[in-house]
What does this fold into?
Amino acid sequence: MDPKFSYRAVAIQGASPVKLVICLYEQAIEDLRQAVIALEKGEIEARTRKINHAIMVLGQLQGSLDMQRGGEVARNLEHFYAMVRAGLCQAQLKQSTTILEQQISHLVSIYEAWLEVERIGAKPSSQSEPGASSLVASGETSSADWSA
It folds into this structure.
């Protein structure tokens, strides 16, 4: 078994909702870093696969937002996810490492904010509690693994 897969599987078992969100950000950021490497090497399939997976991760994050309880924070996050996904589509179309790196930077900024939320032990009301998903561990998505 792949040690990286095993580590991620263990990391999400019993994780708090905030930790699951952090894991999803880590996955999206890693996907995009690998997409940059693939783009630089001219590996079109790998680049496309990684960007597509990052888009699916963002869709899971966006789908877990609780718009009623989350208020303005949830609306801002929804806008943010849509903006990043649009940037990823543009990066794919233009085959641009610059655009990919910009999206990584945006994700890292919000990721760091989630780390701070975890550090202080707060639970933002903008997120519902996603179920422990194999998405992070396996790189695959399944709507059945999530509750919105």
User: Anything to note?
Assistant: The two ends are 31 Å apart (CA to CA).
